[in-house]
Amino acid sequence: MNNFDEKYCLTSFERLLEKDSTTGQYEEVQALICEMLDEICVPYEVTRKGGVIANLGGEGEALVVTAHLDDIGLMVRHVNADGTLNVCAVGGLYPFYCVTENVRIYTRDGKVYTGSICRTPNSVHVTEEELRVALPDYRTNVCVVLDEDVKCAADTLALGIDTGDMIALYPRFEYTASGYIKSRFIDDKACAAVLLAAMKRIKEQGIKLNRKVYAYFAMYEEIGHGTVYLPEDVKDILAIDIAPTGPDQNSDEKKVSIFCKDSRFPYHWGMTNELREAAKASGADFVMDIFTPHYGTDCDPSVLAGYDIRHAAIGPGTANSHGYERTHIKGLENTYKLLMAYLTK
Question: How far apart are CA 342 and CA 315, in angstroms?
Answer without folding.
Answer: 13
